[in-house]
Specification:
Blueprint (H helix, E strand, L loop, with lengths): L7 H13 L8 E7 L11 E2 L8 E8 L3 H14 L4 E4 L8 H5 L11 H9 L3 E4 L8 E3 L5 E3 L2 H19 L5 E2 L8 H8 L4 E2 L4 E3 L12 H14 L2 E6 L12 H13 L4 E3 L2 H13 L1 E7 L2 E7 L11 E6 L3 E8 L8 E4 L2 E6 L2 E11 L3
Parallel strand pairs: 1-13, 3-4, 3-11, 3-12, 4-5, 8-9, 10-11
Antiparallel strand pairs: 2-15, 6-7, 13-14, 14-19, 15-18, 16-19, 17-18
Helix pairs in contact: 2-8, 7-8
Bound molecules: zinc ion.
The site of zinc ion has 5 residues, from loops.
Length: 367
């Protein structure tokens, strides 16, 4: 907004409008705290991107049950395309060594060793909890009566898995998925005692239903992702067997070609672990953006009430600056520059939530 050449009353009204307007963006709340008449951007237009790097949609690949072919078949594809995934493992059934893992039948639960899981974590994959033994949390008797796991056993299913992953991998599991996706208020509370995130929404099944079919195609998978890109939504692939076992595909290429497709859509699609996307979304929804602007510059802070020990991933802050050619962002009081990208007339700044202001300046564009 350029106000300097306008009638003083118009300028004053515009200034007032800027001051009172609060962004009605879906998730980000931008509060205009100050605007200079000479500023080239209105603080109301500064926003937190819906997803990292201002992508349209986000997808997480989650693999359940620790099946060996996930490591043998899916991981080489993930490496090939540079994608990170989430492995919901069953710690009570996970062997220590690759030799022990090799003794399991193809498609058996816990077919990836702790040694290998640690290597996967070092590559950036997420090792997450699928409960200690994968026992049913809710079962049905032959006469159709529902039986809930008793509370102490339910707590143990989550606590033992949590402790084991924390000790063996060195990173506490951030997310949890339950056997058969069992969920109710009691289970939800038990999950959240240990994990910030419970996978109970947003899932799409990678494979046929019923799971005995092997007709699921890459084209079907791509179409599901396209729908989420069109809708600007987050989705979570729930994947079991790739080649052997429950809900297996007709061949490894079904997943391989889909991952190739995901890679080709990375301009609009953010592919990352379920923990990484969840952290972004939770920070985004909790953070309050307070922005001001002056000339070719803007200052903002991201105040977030979440625990900064768990939630310190950078959010992408978007500043519309048509014509900007060079930009710089620094946390006030720090000389270290923050990551900045200029794309499609917008400056994208990566900044973790903090009440310390970030100062952005740029050259080029209208001034
Ligand atoms: Zn499972």
């Amino acid at each position: 907004m350029k106000c300097s050449s306008r009638h003083p009353l118009v300028a004053a009204l515009l200034l007032l409008a800027s001051l009172v307007a609060i962004s009605h963006g879906l998730h980000a709340e931008a509060t205009a705290s100050a605007v200079s008449p000479s500023s080239t951007v209105s603080p109301n237009e500064i926003r937190i991107a819906k997803f990292h790097d201002d992508r349209t949609s986000a997808v997480s690949l989650t693999f359940d049950d620790g099946l060996r072919n996930q490591n043998d078949v899916a991981v080489p594809f993930l490496d090939q395309y540079g994608l990170r995934a989430t492995f919901f493992i069953i710690p009570g059934r996970t062997p220590e060594t690759d030799e022990e893992a090799a003794k399991k039948k193809p498609g058996d639960w816990g077919g990836i060793s702790w040694k290998r899981l640690k290597e996967l974590a070092a590559k950036g994959h997420e090792i997450a909890s699928h409960t200690w033994m994968h026992d049913a949390l809710i079962s049905t008797t032959p006469d159709g009566r529902r039986v809930d796991m008793e509370p102490a056993k339910l707590d143990e299913a989550f606590s033992r898995a949590y402790q084991a992953i924390k000790e063996k991998i060195g990173v506490a599991p951030f997310t949890c998925a339950t056997p058969g996706n069992a969920s109710d208020d009691t289970i939800r509370a038990a999950v959240h005692k240990y994990h910030p995130v419970f996978r109970e929404h947003l899932m799409e099944r990678f494979g046929d239903w019923p799971p005995s079919g092997k007709n699921f195609t890459t084209e079907q998978a791509n179409a599901i992702v396209d729908r989420h890109i069109d809708g600007g939504t987050q989705m979570v692939w729930m994947i079991h067997a790739v080649t052997d076992g429950y809900n297996a595909q007709s061949g490894p290429e079904v997943l391989g070609n889909h991952l190739k497709y995901l890679k080709s859509r990375e301009d609009v699609l953010w592919v990352d672990t379920y923990a990484a996307v969840s952290r972004y979304v939770m920070e985004r929804d909790a953070a309050k953006l307070i922005a001001s602007s002056s000339g070719n510059g803007a200052t903002f802070s991201l105040q977030c009430p979440l625990d900064s020990k768990l939630f310190n991933d950078p959010l992408t802050v978007v500043i519309p600056a048509p014509g900007a050619v060079k930009a710089e962002a620094k946390r006030s009081g720090s000389a270290a520059p923050l990551p900045v990208t200029i794309r499609d007339g917008k400056i994208l700044v990566e900044a973790a939530p903090s009440s310390d202001p970030v100062v952005v300046s740029w050259s080029g564009g209208k001034s």
